[in-house]
Amino acid sequence: MRTLISTAFVSLDGVVEAPGGEPGYRNSGWTFKHTEFLPEAFEIKGREQKEATAMLMGRVSYESFSPVWPDMEDFADYKVMPKYVVSTTLAEDDLVSNWGETTILRSLDDVAALKETEGGPIIVHGSASLNQALSDAGLIDRYHLLVFPLLLGAGKRLFSATDKDAQKLRLVEHEAYANGLQKDVFDVVR
């Protein structure tokens, strides 16, 4: 079974919305506006590209990333990687042609079936709503979190407010940086 890894920039109060400057959110761009950049704190982002064998995202993240990421040197490894977009509304005609093989999945059952295929880890970027649904369905195996020393208040959260049984996590990697960022890598305990 393939490992599904959720990777996120998250504020201390759990917000993941618009970390890179996406429009429409009051605190848009919070990852670079309020925290000094230290390259060593982002080492995990390069490692993710080397270790992942596929990328999964929701429609909104796909529509944000696909016009920009294919031409960015920082994301070159993702260009050739198979991509999967979970959406009930996206059509084949909506897919960009310069970002490699992209497959539309229509349900969480399709994601579960993808996890059953042969291959290495699948990385989930952005995709707040999808992350919540995947977590609630028990489909995420690992979390890569870069926690920013910020309280943002309102905004899309990484985790849902669904009333459910406790889900235990095991901390497998942790580091704190001089700029206040924390890297937390958790495996989901089954």
From TrEMBL:
It comes from the Bacteria. InterPro entries: DHFR-like_dom_sf, RibDG_C, Riboflavin_Biosynth_HTPR. Signal peptide: none annotated. Residues 2-182 form the Bacterial bifunctional deaminase-reductase C-terminal domain. Pfam families: RibD_C. This is Dihydrofolate reductase family protein. It comes from Streptomyces tibetensis.
